[in-house]
Amino acid sequence: MNFSELYRQSNQLCEFSPNGEFLAIGSHYKLIIRNVITSQIEHLFTCMDFIQYIEWSRDSSLILCGMFKRGLVQVWSLKYLDWSCKIDEGSAGLRNVHWGPDGLHILTTADFNLRITVWSLTNKSISYIRYPKQCEKGYDYSQDGLFMALAERRDCSDFISIFACKSWELIKHFSCATDDLSGLKWSPSARILAVWDSLLMYKILIYSADGYLLRKYSPYEHALGIKCVSWSPTGQFLAIGSFDEKVRLLNNISWKTSMEKGHPLVVKPDKVTIYKEEVSMGPLPTSFEEISSAMVALCSKESKYHIVKEALEIPSIKPSLTKANPELGVSQVEFSCNSRYFYTKNDNMPCVLWIWDVKNLCLSHILVHLSPIKHVRWDPTSVRLALSTGNKQLYMWTPSGCLSAEIPIDAMFQVNTLKWHPDGSALVLIGKEKTCISYLTGEQTDDQ
């Protein structure tokens, strides 16, 4: 495992290109394009205002920069450096911007979700989509890039519109049996659309692509409901995390529950492998006059996992039930690339990551850390995940074991976010104001 030097960034704007050749870094007004292998600067673009968002097109030839405060979007080309594009939403304001799947259209959302504007980069045409709903996950593209599902709010009711992404024509429009739609997500095959209600109730609806309601699932009532939803890459399972601290799997045959598991306070290691983080302190300064924040950070702390062989009480916190969005329940569920495993994160157990075996429908591994987990991501090509806890350690898990690696650069650098290279050969580690690339060596094989 090798590390690059640190590079400056702002707003944690670091994105690998889909083809894996470049790393885009936003730093204030500048957009820096680096070669992933050599780490050298390939392109440098200057925007008209402070960059708040960046996104690559699917073919990695274009990249957009969103400047929401100014209502501007600037687009840059890596093939034709003398070409550029500027989109100004004017008085309508800019709330969100993203690429269309074909890389030839840009969709912008006006303030207060007044409308969505589709901008064509080829013929400069403009079209509008009215009534987009303001919610957590209000739109989703199918995996093949052919369709977009959009949540709408009309006459105090929820609707869903299906658009063809090549022509942006409306091909299906139907009402949705939700009280306050919170999100929607296509299945990998684009044949099924999962739609869920607001967190005030547990209700998830399974629709076919033509708007036919296949299943309504609501395991309980009169309590806070869904926090996260995730499809397995094969489309066989739909995982749902909720405020009752349980994860549920619905199968794609009968749309009934295949698994319903909680996150217990005490775990026995008879059928579960428990990894717990421990640190050993290095030598401290001998004189108190020599102690500074930098020197304290330099004092070595060797972090490593050890396997727990006795029953372990899981560390948890008591959420404040008087505040909005209490730290309670399963807020993250994601599957590995081969659908063999998925992880969950229970908010009132912030230091613990739970890894489940889909084949046996049971808990497989538990990772217990000393600090709350900040970010978790699966390797896109193999059964391996990386996570960070806001310190200078990089944690990794595979079915064969765990690793805690210290980042041997600036002692004050702390990893808050991480993102995988498309082929799983590297990670970009993102701190508060700096970032670096971690190059991984060796081959990783999937656990089938």
From TrEMBL:
InterPro entries named in the record: Centrosome-WD_assoc, WD40/YVTN_repeat-like_dom_sf, WD40_repeat_dom_sf, WD40_rpt
> SUPFAM superfamilies, alphabetically?
WD40 repeat-like (SSF50978)
GO cellular component terms listed in the entry, alphabetical order: microtubule organizing center; MWP complex
Instruction: Give one Pfam family, short name only.
Output: WD40
Which stretches are transmembrane? Answer: none
Please state what the protein is called: WD repeat-containing protein WRAP73-like
Q: Which gene encodes it?
A: LOC115217611
